Amino acid sequence: MTTDAVADAQIGRLPVALAVEEIRRDFPAMELKVYGKPLAYLDNAATSQKPRSVIDAEAHWYLESCANVHRGVHALSVRATAAYESARQKVASFVNAASAREIVFVKGTTDAVNLVAGSFARGRLDPGDEIVITGLEHHSNIVPWQLVCEDRGAKLRVARLDDRGDVDMEEFARLLSERTKMVAVSHVSNALGTINPVERMIELAHERDIPILIDGAQAVPHKKVDVQALGCDFYAFSSHKMFGPTGVGALYGRHDLLAAMPPYQGGGEMIRTVSFERTEYAEPPARFEAGTPNIAGAVGFGAAVDYLERIGLDRIEAYEDELLAYATAELEAVPGVRLIGTARRKAAVLSFVIGDVHAHDVGTILDQEGVAIRTGHHCAQPVMQHFGVPATSRASLAFYNTREEVDRLVVGLDKIREVFGG
């Protein structure tokens, strides 16, 4: 069955279960076995598996178009440049940027946040100024802001969470003031699955003319994102979480803001002219892409966009919502399991503890059953501290996961209860 047929299946022309099984055949990892058992891969918030179309696109570039971009007039360089810039256009269209000039290729979300912190925010901060984030943030949306605040004598302010894992929006609004020079919030929490009301957050920030960055790493693989409709100033995301290669991602930035930002790194490609006396910098996005980029990764990134768009983000979101509801009910029925994070709006992430069993023990036993989950603090230690736990076990779902895999997770948890009692 073609991917187009899979898309037809998800709108009712074929059974949804059949469509998911067909989709799974696109992913070589779905055929793997771990300790002699079929792999149930439930660690998608850390990184997703890759369809053959992405793997083939990257391999094809190496086989037939391997050359540097923007610098050569020979055939391979022309092909490489065309493939690279085509990927940029695909990514721009994927998030509905006004222009491909608003898409900077970076190493990933972490790199994108650091770019904005170092190039945009640093020059806007004076001693006593403030940056506002939330208690949900990944370390990658905390540490870059801490570094720039320490450098400039500014303060990092944090909107706290409630007991469900939602941001206290009244406090968020109160924290915004004439001293606030930047807001940075996650669209979806990697640790809890909480979907932030980013539309309202952007509105509140812009009422005070405060620029805002959205960390979209956990949103773009699972829901349709329109940066123009959101009205955000910056939006950061990674390829590897959306079924593309590792080591590449994108920063969306409004072109007027990018054009006013100084370079983050110096070197080749980001210049217009160089002399020993002065350098004139290129226009964005080239200004922020010093050196030879991850060309093959960008090509694979574009192929991942193609794959997601053929299936349809609306269909993906609807299926994952159903799977999350099923998994939530199943885990809540397991004696001793406590879900951490029960926000009113959630993506397909289930973070939990089971009795007094350490999360690493949970993960190790499940691994022996062929079930791959993530354990630890998930690069979100303040979230763990808020809920009073050192770590959680986290199952994160994607559109190639099934109810049967959720059932295998539950069976594994029952075995953990047998081993540890309870």
List keywords for this structure.
seven-stranded mixed β-sheet; 422 residues; Aspartate Aminotransferase, domain 2; 2 domains; alpha/beta; disordered N terminus; four-stranded antiparallel β-sheet
Describe the protein:
- It is a single chain.
- By secondary structure, the protein is of the alpha/beta class.
- The chain folds into 2 domains: 56-309, 3-Layer(aba) Sandwich (Aspartate Aminotransferase, domain 2), CATH 3.40.640.10; 312-420, Aspartate Aminotransferase, domain 1 (Alpha-Beta Complex).
- It has 15 helices and 17 strands.
- The protein has helices at 3-13, 16-24, 52-64, 75-94, 109-121, 143-152, 169-175, 198-207, 227-230, 255-260, 295-311, 313-332, 359-368, 381-387, 403-420; strands at residues 33-34, 37-38, 40-41, 103-106, 130-134, 155-159, 180-186, 212-215, 234-238, 249-253, 271-274, 279-281, 337-339, 349-354, 371-372, 374-376, 392-396.
- The strands form 5 sheets. It has a 7-stranded mixed sheet, with helices on both faces.
- The longest helix has 20 residues, at 75-94.
User: Could you estimate the helical fraction of the residues in percent?
Assistant: 40-55%
Mean pLDDT: 94
Level-1 CATH class name of the largest domain: Alpha Beta
Biggest pleated-sheet summary = 7 strands, mixed
What is the number of independent domains? 2
Report the total helices: 15
The CATH architecture of the largest domain can be given as 3-Layer(aba) Sandwich
Sequence of strands across the biggest β-sheet: 4-10-9-8-7-5-6
Q: What is the C-alpha radius of gyration, as a whole number of Å?
A: 22 Å
Oligomer: single chain
Outline type: globular
Ranges where pLDDT stays below 50 over 5 or more residues in a row are 1-18
CATH H-level homologous superfamily name of the largest domain: Type I PLP-dependent aspartate aminotransferase-like (Major domain)
Strand content: 15-25%
Number of DSSP E strands = 17
Query: Structural class of the secondary elements?
Result: alpha/beta
Q: What is the fold-level CATH name, i.e. the topology of the largest domain?
A: Aspartate Aminotransferase, domain 2
